[in-house]
Design goal:
283 residues, alpha/beta, D-Maltodextrin-Binding Protein, domain 2, Alpha-Beta Plaits, six-stranded mixed sheet, globular, binds adenosine-5'-triphosphate, binds 1-O-pyrophosphono-5-O-phosphono-alpha-D-ribofuranose, binds magnesium ion, HisG_C
Length: 283
């Protein structure tokens, strides 16, 4: 069977998480900063380490079969690729931001103003949709510095904590798009068995990240209350303890409302609660 190629970012915001995800999928490969291609020893796959801007086109053109890249880059490069899986990391928003002392208070005030960005295509579309005519200043980085230098009236750049905006005297003004890292593939490749296998492995790792394995002790009298509080899984495992009328309950609970659930389990009489990370959940 043909060896697949997956393109990931060589260095930068998505590199570490992309490598970690693939390693958690059980793929063995060397991650030398100097090598741009790395064979996987236990799966017919090669890893290409690239600038993130090139990844969507490499996938579209068939040079790589799969890629891990931010949605912002896909939208900006305007390629045709398949979104196979959202990956839950590299979360950020593309925003228009203005100086703290700017007199711009309404989107329409951007008419006739200049906006510096490294995302001219996405910004152009956004302005067109909102019927705004601004001058787009396409620069290649350090966008946040532009208003202070008098190069532009506003900027359009990625924001996550907002720290970079703040330290450059800027404030967010309008949301253009939100983004996260996604796994992409080529149209028509959906039935490839190796791609399906990889997607399944990735999904099992992501599912496991969203949940915790919990073991708790409970008196039998309180078991019905506990059962009412436990979510989704088919049925918890109940194991008798050496102490009469006590049982251990083994279950899986979602990370998102973890503390609220633990607190209600305690109120229902749960004791000795042990929480463990889950490596994979295979359905
Ligand atoms: N502050 C942030 N927080 C979270 N995710 C971010 C942030 N900034 C960027 N990202 C996401 O990570 C991706 C890579 O960001 P990075 O800054 O490493 O890109 P780059 O400098 O263009 O890298 P390259 O050298 O590969 O071209 C972005 O395209 C975006 O999807
Ligand atoms: O809201 P914050 O958490 O401050 O993050 C926003 C910053 O992160 C990104 O740049 P990055 O630090 O990746 O550097 P780069 O511009 O060299 O890619 C982005 O271009 C912003 O400058
Ligand atoms: Mg880039």
């Amino acid at each position: 069977m043909k060896t697949l190629k997956i393109a990931i970012q060589k260095s930068g915001r998505l590199n570490e998480k992309s490598v970690e995800l693939l390693k958690n999928c059980g793929l063995n490969f060397e991650n030398y900063k100097s090598s741009l291609i790395s064979p996987v020893s236990n799966f017919p796959l090669e890893i290409l380490f690239l600038r993130d801007d090139d990844i969507p086109e490499y996938v579209q053109d068939g040079i790589a079969d799969l890629g891990i890249v931010g949605e912002n880059v896909i939208q900006e490069t305007e390629v045709k690729v398949n979104y196979l899986q959202r990956l839950g990391f590299g979360k950020c928003s593309l925003k228009i931001a203005i100086s703290n002392n700017s007199d711009i208070t309404d989107l329409q005030h951007l008419n006739g103003k200049s906006i510096a960005t490294t995302y001219p295509a996405i910004l152009g579309k956004f302005l067109k949709e909102n019927k705004i005519q601004s001058e787009i200043r396409n620069i290649s980085g350090s966008v946040e510095i532009a208003p202070g230098l008098g190069l532009a009236d506003a900027i359009c750049d990625l924001v996550s904590t907002g720290g970079t905006l703040k330290s450059n005297g800027l404030k967010p003004f309008a949301d253009v798009m939100s983004s996260e890292a996604v796994l992409i593939g080529r149209n028509g490749d959906e039935d490839n068995i190796l791609i399906q296998e990889l997607i399944q492995r990735i999904q099992s790792v992501l599912r496991a990240k969203e949940t915790k394995y919990v073991v708790l002790n409970i008196h039998r009298d309180n078991l019905p209350k506990i059962m009412d509080l436990l979510p989704g899984v088919k049925s918890p495992t109940i194991v008798p303890l050496a102490e009469a009328d006590w049982v251990a309950v083994h279950t899986v609970i979602p990370e998102r409302d973890f503390w609220a659930r633990i607190s209600s389990l305690k109120q229902a009489g749960a004791e000795g609660i042990v929480v463990m990370p889950i490596e994979k959940i295979i359905l």
